[in-house]
């Protein structure tokens, strides 16, 4: 009989582990606490509008990219994709607009027109994009491993400066005050991230590898569910795992919330790592490294609160994403904000009724800010935040206040309730070598003290990217196949 596998959680890592497990002859079952699969890769309907919580820049959309293999094998990609012209746009209070075009020629011309005095600096930036776009570096890093990167070493060395330079540091070199402010915020409004990440994102988009899946995140995840079930996998929703059963230093099964127990030869957790270790495993089988990973996550985090608006306004001509620079600081979700970043989904007609559109604003906040509120105060603060965001958007889009038809607000508490994690999005373990994990140099999908047990998802990768979390499920099954002395195989989609 094939070895049996129980998978806790139907996020990207859990679904991928189930898919590759079925491909390789394992009998897999996924237990998901929510009423549907996808984890953080989710979207939902509100009065005809679709609100998406996850996808910003989906990588792996080009068949020529190595990352594409993951989505092709797991059945995630739909038949229709949308390619946007710019990564993001930045608007100043006085009406200036910087559009960070993916095409380096268009970008160079646009930035030079905004600030002719910075033409040389702009050219250095766009030259870096062109250099990195010559190769599938991201795909090679993720799917090819360190050995395959040797032939790309000259390109890496040529662009190594971008690893050592943050977005804020490069922005300081501009003479134009507007570009100085705008450039620093181009990577999800985080000026401390290395410029290399931004250039790699541009390089991928130049090669057609970044797009938007029509139908939003839930449709994307649904493709993986169909693939999993077509291979014979069993997905059990509304079945929350409370405890991982062990015996003789091995994981042997799970106890569900209803008290029932299920047994398998291998257990894979796509659940939050802290809850897995401290609750499901009751703090047993710990070493110093795992205890370090279980430290309380930072209170403040990106994407900690999101405001969703369904508006009676055509957004099809607007940039896909925008950062609105504020003329004076505003306190939003408990923190002082100097800008507001939001997405506009006018490029996907399925997101709203005809002639209407969806806007999502994403803000930094703290877990403690929302946790301290009682139920009534929590609801009131979410409403107040939505009103604040609408008022700020009014300055850029006159009349939008009267055009708002639907509002929704999520916080870190929403994600904690929805996924059972620790502090919602702020669940990435600390002290992790993400770069080594990406290049296959990490074995963090293994539990060093417990046999027949694997981590997948964010806990195994320390990266929020969907393709990385799906890849962790693939790697877990590859390792299991090697352990069992069998050849890892992939069944092409449609077979």
Which secondary structure elements does this structure contain, and how are they paired or packed?
Layout: E1 4-8, H1 12-23, E2 27-32, E3 43-46, E4 49-52, E5 58-59, H2 68-74, E6 81-82, E7 86-91, E8 97-101, H3 104-114, H4 119-132, H5 137-144, H6 153-158, H7 161-164, H8 167-171, H9 177-183, H10 195-206, E9 210-213, H11 216-230, E10 234-237, E11 241-247, E12 250-256, E13 261-263, E14 266-269, H12 273-280, H13 288-293, E15 300-311, E16 321-332, E17 335-344, E18 357-366, H14 367-371, H15 375-396, H16 400-403, E19 404-411, H17 412-419, H18 434-438, E20 453-455, H19 458-461, H20 466-484
Parallel strand pairs: 1-2, 1-14, 2-10, 7-16, 14-20
Antiparallel strand pairs: 3-4, 5-9, 6-9, 7-8, 11-12, 12-13, 15-18, 15-19, 16-17, 17-18
Helix pairs in contact: 1-11, 1-20, 3-4, 4-10
Short description, anyone?
With 495 residues, the chain is an alpha/beta fold. Helix content is 37%, strand content 24%.
Question: What features would you highlight for this structure?
Answer:
20 strands; 37% helix; alpha/beta; 495 residues; globular; 5-stranded parallel β-sheet; 7-stranded mixed β-sheet
3D structure, described in words:
The chain has 495 residues and is an alpha/beta fold. About 2% of the residues have low confidence. The protein is globular, with a radius of gyration of 23 Å. It has 20 helices and 20 strands. It starts with a strand and ends in an 11-residue tail after the last helix.
């Amino acid at each position: 009989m094939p070895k049996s596998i129980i998978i806790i959680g139907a996020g990207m890592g859990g679904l991928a582990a189930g898919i590759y497990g079925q491909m390789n002859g394992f009998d897999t079952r996924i237990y998901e606490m929510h009423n549907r699969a996808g984890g953080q890769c989710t979207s939902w309907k509100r009065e005809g509008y679709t609100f998406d919580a996850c996808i910003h820049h989906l990588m792996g959309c080009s068949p020529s990219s190595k990352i594409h293999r993951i989505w092709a094998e797991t059945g995630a990609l739909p038949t229709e994709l949308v390619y946007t012209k710019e990564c993001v746009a930045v608007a100043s209070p006085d009406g200036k607009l910087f559009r960070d075009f993916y095409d380096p020629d268009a970008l160079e011309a646009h930035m030079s027109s905004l600030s002719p005095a910075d033409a040389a600096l702009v050219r250095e930036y766009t030259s870096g994009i062109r250099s990195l776009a010559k190769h599938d570096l991201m795909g090679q890093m993720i799917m090819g491993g360190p050995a395959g990167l040797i032939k790309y070493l000259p390109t890496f060395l040529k662009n190594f400066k971008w690893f050592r330079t943050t977005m804020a540091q490069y922005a300081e070199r501009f003479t134009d005050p507007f570009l100085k402010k705008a450039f620093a915020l181009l990577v999800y409004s985080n000026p401390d991230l290395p410029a290399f990440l931004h250039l790699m994102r541009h390089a991928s988009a130049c090669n057609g590898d970044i797009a938007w899946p029509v139908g939003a995140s839930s449709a994307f995840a649904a493709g993986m569910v169909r693939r999993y079930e077509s291979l014979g996998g069993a997905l059990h929703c509304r079945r929350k795992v409370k405890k991982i059963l062990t015996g003789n230093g091995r994981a042997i099964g799970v106890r569900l919330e209803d008290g029932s127990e299920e047994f398998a030869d291998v257990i894979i957790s796509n659940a939050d790592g802290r809850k897995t270790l401290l609750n499901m495993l009751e703090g047993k089988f710990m070493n110093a490294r795992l205890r370090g990973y279980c430290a309380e996550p930072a209170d403040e985090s990106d994407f900690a609160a999101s405001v969703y608006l369904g508006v009676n306004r055509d957004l099809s001509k607007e940039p896909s994403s925008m950062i609105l620079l504020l003329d004076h600081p505003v306190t939003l979700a408990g923190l002082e904000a100097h800008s507001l970043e939001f997405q506009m989904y006018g490029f996907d007609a399925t997101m709203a009724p005809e002639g209407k559109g969806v806007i999502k604003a994403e803000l930094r906040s703290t877990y403690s800010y929302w946790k301290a509120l009682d139920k009534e105060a929590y609801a009131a603060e979410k409403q107040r935040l939505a009103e604040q965001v609408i008022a700020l958007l009014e300055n850029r889009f006159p009349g939008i206040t009267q055009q708002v038809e639907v509002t929704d607000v999520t916080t870190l508490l929403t994600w904690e309730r929805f996924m059972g994690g620790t502090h919602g999005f702020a669940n990435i373990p600390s002290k992790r070598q993400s770069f080594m994990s990406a290049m296959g140099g990490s074995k963090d999908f293994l539990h060093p003290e417990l046999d027949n047990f694997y981590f997948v998802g964010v806990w195994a990768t320390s990266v929020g990217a969907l393709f990385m979390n799906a890849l962790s499920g693939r790697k877990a099954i590859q390792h299991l196949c090697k352990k069992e002395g069998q050849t890892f195989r992939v069944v092409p989609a449609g077979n």
